[in-house]
Design a protein that fits this description.
Blueprint: E1 2-4, H1 6-16, E2 24-27, H2 34-42, H3 49-58, H4 63-73, H5 87-98, H6 103-113, E3 119-122, E4 129-135, E5 145-149, H7 151-156, E6 160-167, H8 175-183, E7 186-189, H9 194-198, H10 200-203, H11 205-213, E8 217-221, H12 236-247, E9 254-258, H13 265-274, E10 278-282, H14 295-306
Parallel strand pairs: 1-2, 1-7, 2-3, 7-8, 8-9, 9-10
Antiparallel strand pairs: 4-5, 4-6
Helix pairs in contact: 1-3, 1-14, 3-4, 4-5, 5-6, 8-11, 12-13
């Protein structure tokens, strides 16, 4: 099972595919920008963007299903009201309407059309909003901290995030999500936007309680670099300490970090051991382009993380 959202979750799913017998993605539903933001403001549905990306990442390998996945990712051009909408966002919204507002049934229907190698589920049954307390970086600002609401606003803020919460504070969670956590052998968190894609799963009480009660091996994949506006200047060990503050009873067994992204290996090892976890240092970054995880290399690191856990597989 992989928890997260956006491009980070898609990278994790691509890496898990060669290893997993049964793969489930649990996806954030707090996106309020772009096409997803427009749809959630106009329709009583979950923001579809991150859900669509996870479905595309799990699409089957047949040419027809890959072509379908490409279609779902295609953004409409032009300058009209549909400009910028990915086709998949509209399809998923339409399927949700057809199924009387049942987002999980809509996701399962689209997964079937894609020949998906797993299942995609929303982390909550209602759209969520993120609210952050940030510390301003402007020394002349008399208000040293402020509240920022919304995923896009938080990600775009130049100020340092001090804490984050979701609203509603205790949203309903689909029974299938809780059942998937209960039977999972492995649960992975990250990579992805730390405050807006990774940590929100630990802010939903029912999700966190299910993770705390699970016997699954919990694996965290650290980001390759800090994210502007969210984790500026964060070291890998700072990412981990923030995560630890939100675990609240959720065990942590393994931390995967890119060998070249870690400056203070001793400091990170100390932070990992402080969580009661094992550190896997491996080359997981793509060799070219902007910083991103290479799926094949990350697969190798995940396989290393699973060694010593008999019978483990990602569900």
């Amino acid at each position: 099972m992989a928890l997260g959202g956006g491009h980070g979750l898609a990278a994790a799913l691509a890496a898990w595919r060669p290893l997993a017998g049964e793969l489930t993605a649990v996806v954030t539903v707090a996106d309020d920008g772009g096409s997803s933001g427009r749809i959630r403001r106009e329709m009583p549905v979950l923001p579809p963007g991150d859900l669509r990306m996870a479905l595309a990442a799990l699409a089957g390998d047949e040419p027809r299903t890959r072509e379908m996945a490409t279609l779902l990712q295609h953004r409409l051009g032009g300058s009209g009201v549909l400009a910028g909408h990915p086709v998949g966002n509209l399809v998923l919204t339409g399927l949700t309407e057809m199924h009387g507002g049942d987002a999980v049934r809509a996701l399962d229907t689209l997964a079937d059309l894609l020949g998906a190698r797993g299942r995609v589920l929303p982390m909550a049954d209602v759209p969520l909003d993120l609210v952050a307390i940030v510390d301003t970086v402007d020394p002349d600002d008399p208000q040293r901290s402020r509240h920022i609401r919304g995923q896009v606003a938080i990600a775009a803020s130049p100020d340092r995030v001090r804490s984050i919460r979701v609203t509603p504070a205790d949203p309903p969670v689909h029974p299938d999500v809780l059942a998937a956590i209960a039977r999972a052998d492995v649960v992975s968190l990250g990579p992805g936007s730390w405050y807006t894609s990774v940590l929100p799963h630990l802010l939903v009480p029912r999700l966190r309680a299910a993770l705390a009660a699970s016997s699954a091996q919990v694996v965290v994949v650290l980001n390759l670099e800090p994210q502007a506006g969210e984790t500026d200047d964060f070291s890998p060990e700072q990412h981990l300490r923030v995560l630890q503050d939100h675990l609240q009873g959720v065990p942590l067994h393994t931390v995967i970090a890119d060998a070249d992204a870690v400056v203070d290996r001793r400091g990170l090892l100390s932070a990992v051991q402080g969580c009661g976890a094992t550190l896997v240092l491996a080359p997981v970054a793509a060799a070219d382009g902007p910083p991103r995880h290479d799926p094949e290399l990350l697969t190798g690191a995940l396989a290393s993380a699973l060694r010593g856990a008999p019978g483990a597989g990602a569900r």
